């Protein structure tokens, strides 16, 4: 009977030890699982913030590019308007150059050529426009 008693405490201890080991294993697994969950959460959060950061950077970059392109568009529109204005002036000049009287006036003004019996007097700052120039004809001497 003494042998039975001695065996019993060992078997009870052993069950107790097995239970404790199982509980320790469960606790360790639970701890490992929590650590794994926190690690996964940290990785996902990092990926999320990196993604959001890259999207915000891309958005800011595109907004900057859009602003630059709008400014370039405005500058090009101004240049187009200037070119159209210059084209109108050139067309007007072409029409004027088709007129023989206008060509004669320009030749007399710029090259100081005159018709027979005409004298040209150049008065500085007196005539500002082509229409204001006075070409007087003198009588033949």
From TrEMBL:
Provide a GO biological process annotation: cell division
**Record bears the keyword Transmembrane:** yes
Q: Which InterPro entries match?
A: DivIC, FtsL/DivIC
Query: What are the entry keywords?
Result: Coiled coil, Membrane, Transmembrane, Transmembrane helix
List the transmembrane segments.
37-60
Q: Which residues form a coiled coil?
A: 59-100
Protein name, entry field? Cell division protein DIVIC
List, alphabetically, the Pfam families matched.
DivIC
